Amino acid sequence: MTGLAIVVLLSLGRHPATGRPRRNPDDARALATALALAATRSGSRVLAVHAGDPRAPVLRDYLGQGLDELTVLDMPSGSDPLPSLREHLVALSPDLLLTGQRAENGEASGLLPYLLAEALGMTLVPGVVGLDLQGDQGRFTQALPRGRRRQIEARLPLAATIPAGTAGLPLPSFAAARRGRIVSLPALASPDPHLVAIERQPWRQLPRPQPRRLKGSAIDRLKSMTGGGEAKGRLLVDPDPETAAAQILDRLGEIGLIRASHQSVTSRDTDGRTER
Amino acid sequence: MSRPRLDPRALRLARQVEGGGKRPRFALKADPPALHSRRRDPRLLRMRALVPGARRPRYDWKRDAASGAPSAVPAVDPVPANEPIRVESPAFWVLAVLDQSTGALDETDLQLLSVARRLAGDEGGVVALALADPVLATAGADRLAVWPASAVDPAAAEARAATVQALVESVKPRHVLCSDDPVAGGDIARRLAAKAGLRLVSAVNSLTADGRIGRRAGDETWLQPAPALMTIMPGSFAADEQALREARPLELPPIAFEAARLANIGLLPVDPESLPLDETDFIASAGNGVTDFAAFAEAAAALGATRAGSRVVCDAGLLPRDRQVGASGTVVTARCYLALGIAGAPQHLQGITGVRHVIAVNTDLHAEMIKRADLSIIADAQAVMPALARLARQRQEKP
């Protein structure tokens, strides 16, 4: 088993409530994943890269997760990191590129991993919460909405975006944070041409959107908003328990939450992709 | 002199009311008020209703008083209600790429179509790229492109992105809209952006009156003209009601797509009890009417539902606090809510406003939950729950 070159991209986060700088939770999770993976394969290297200010104190917290060295492409904030990162990564030619799903500062479009994967000819797997490598074959667990998990297989070289999940930030150790080195490299800084023409206003909470209704009186609209009003569903008064249970199961089959029984084929099936 | 001269005689003649007596009569208030003036002028209305030429004054109140038109024509929609709006060659297209993650149109898809419709306005047309669904016509789609067989699987992200790219090249839409889900629509949008060199504008959360789009960046709102490719923040736009459209099938162009590099192994089984309430899709909830909690647990396990409870149940310590549904607990967005012995306090109903399907079992016919439910069963939950568990297990064993 040969060692892997794993590149992790780290960015500065921003606490959503206080606005204070912090580790980006997605990136911290990606770094933890990379370090865990490198520990299982001998000869593997974790190459962490940050594009921005090498003096940012938050970078020490990343080092505190057990990272020995962090490469920083020195550029002022607000510059486009893509050209320098692309150049740097092409020179490294990694087997695996791990990034967080989304930045917390700036545009935060989540596009950078895709552009880098395209430039490096890597297969990209988004939303990875678990990964298992056998040779050059990777098996990924993807987190889907509604708590579902999907498994995907792909071959190296691979790029994966990693969401923070609900597990919380990995704790940094103070000694490791002191021990780790930050290597600063001069980098090309160019402003992002797409972000020049944007008008910036202070953020304010938008009102909850209300649907535009085409018809109906004021009373209808009120009822539709609260969801109450007239009883509109099917009503069974004092059925025997078996009938009641059968009715409930038929309805669940129609909704597509359990497999519909053979008696009730009137259901709007969800083309067999129900998981329960 | 450029000003037109007034002709007092002609003015006087114009103000003369016909059908008076011997003496000529003039309406001094000749200038009609604005069409929807707040003030109602009964005298003017009366004068307008007067039928000219009759010996005795006759009034025709059915005449359109506001415009003085001769006969009342009820205002009709130019398009009959059941006839879809047809768009033949619009000024531009808007492409909406739908997720349909449950197999049918869900709230996110309807919001996406709603934004597409607003961007299209009266001049543009909306193309939906989706699984075929008859509801799409009522959701505002003018054209419907159906995912090809290689891209029906939601995990086939590469094939989906290639399909969108081919469709973009053939239809040339002004805007392409995707959902913001990082493993579904957002993934496709980013793949397309990387492949086609488009700039993605993500998590759009507002649309201004002058057609610009807004999104949040930290403590700023960034405003810009609507771009070619964007993802829509879920919940930021309402799913408007739409007039009926055609949803005419659109032939897909040939898709240039090399072999897929991602292989879908399948979904992993998930223990419903391990999911937080706001994430789960199916909740079985117990209220004050449930006393047999062993049967409740058994029924929930047989159905594969996540257990939850009302405030009373959680206060009594019968379920943990993080399983409480309602205003002081969790506001849930599950697809289905099975309410066992829950009367439906307003605070509890607040917690389930986002639920589409509610099934209620309760002994009280007049409970609020019965009114909220699609299927209501007036029975004792203690009797129904064991039957439900038994029947569910039976159906699992021999479908």
Automatic annotation (TrEMBL), chain A:
Q: State the UniProt keywords alphabetically.
A: Electron transport, Transport
What residue stretches are annotated with the Electron transfer flavoprotein alpha/beta-subunit N-terminal domain? Answer: 24-186
Return the SUPFAM superfamilies for the record. Answer: Adenine nucleotide alpha hydrolases-like (SSF52402)
The record ties this protein, via InterPro entries, to: ETF_a/b_N, Rossmann-like_a/b/a_fold
What is the designated name of this protein? Electron transfer flavoprotein beta subunit
Give the species: Arboricoccus pini
From TrEMBL, chain B:
The protein's GO terms of the molecular function aspect are: electron transfer activity; flavin adenine dinucleotide binding
Task: Name any Gene Ontology BP term.
Answer: fatty acid beta-oxidation using acyl-CoA dehydrogenase
Ranges for region Disordered: 1-39
Q: Protein biosynthesis among the record's keywords?
A: no
* UniProt keyword annotations, A-Z: Electron transport, Transport
Composition bias of kind Basic and acidic residues appears in 1-10
Give yes or no: UniProt keyword DNA repair: no
Residue ranges constituting the Electron transfer flavoprotein alpha/beta-subunit N-terminal domain according to the UniProt record: 94-269
Annotated family: Belongs to the ETF alpha-subunit/FixB family.
Q: Which PANTHER family match?
A: ELECTRON TRANSFER FLAVOPROTEIN ALPHA, ELECTRON TRANSFER FLAVOPROTEIN SUBUNIT ALPHA, MITOCHONDRIAL
The protein's name in its UniProt record? Electron transfer flavoprotein alpha subunit apoprotein
| Organism encoding this protein | Arboricoccus pini
